[in-house]
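Hi F.,

I've been meaning to write this up properly since the lab meeting, where we talked about keeping a consistent format for the predictions we share between groups. The idea is simple: the sequence comes first, exactly as it goes in, then the structure tokens exactly as they come out, then a line or two of notes. No screenshots and no reformatting. I'm using this chain as the first example so we have something concrete to point to.
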Amino acid sequence: MRRALVTGATGGLGRTLVPMLVRAGYDVTATGRNAAVERELTTSGARFIAADLVGGLLHSLVRQHDVVFHLAALSSPWGRAADFAAINVQATQALIDAARERGCDAFIYASTPSIYASPQDRLGLVETSAVAKPFANDYAATKYAAEQLVLSANSPAFRTVALRPRAIVGPHDTVLLPRLLRAARRGRMPLPNGGRALIELTDVRDAAAAFLAADQHLARAAGRAVNISGGQPRRLDELLRRIFARRGMSVRLVPVPARLALSAARMMELICAALPGRPEPPATRYTVMSLAYSQTFDLSAAHELLGWAPRFSPEEAIDAAIGTAGGKPQ
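Output, unedited:
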């Protein structure tokens, strides 16, 4: 029986991947900071150990496993650069070192397509498409740095893969849908470029299946980064109307010129960076870029290297997420 360690298992992706691994015959240890999810994960057949990336406990656990699924990260459009570096880069390097030294044979990393984000439409992105320079934020910069560490560690005895899942949606989402719903809670939502951007959502079940497939196809995928998405572009305004309709919300979408929105976001970032505690701005440049400009993906590498293809449409992903705890406004 293959032994798997899953970091960040209490997040939305982890809570879907862990039971999927158990059903596939893995012996799973799930780790994370949210002990409230322990019963859910143990009921699925996994062991749960409360541990974070900066503690020594996680590194000692590695020796008992064959493969590490490294999902844990500081994932936010705003924060201190030092925190992103410590959690996303330094902790990932320490985990790679521990896994390699203690006999793990595979390390599968959750990277991000945020590395492509820039103030322009980008269609049919492949893994070798240019990353944005400068990066849109510290999250993208540090995730890309960590991805390079993961891929450079690849060897015949320690095979590594980095997956870049786009806009994961599903039950337990605490990032995408809650942010959108908060932005619309007053009954109107400014929308850069009028919502004309093409967006690809990824159902969390498809994303989890891609991580499982990466471990099952290591001979082909080792040493590679792979884009993952739902593969069905939709206009942003159409997706938003579906979300609000499913929630019974009446929201007026207010078109805003993209360049104006970017300038306003930049000003808000400068103001918030100067305030005590550096509160998160109402909008960041990364958020505006994500809403204003199209981003679609060529999934050929996922098909060829992982034998994977998305099964669920964006509409199915939204419908599965609405009504769950993660989909409620906060």
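Notes:
Residues 99 and 288 are 38 Å apart (CA to CA).
Residues 325-330 have pLDDT under 50 and may be disordered.

If this format works for you, I'll send the rest the same way.

G.
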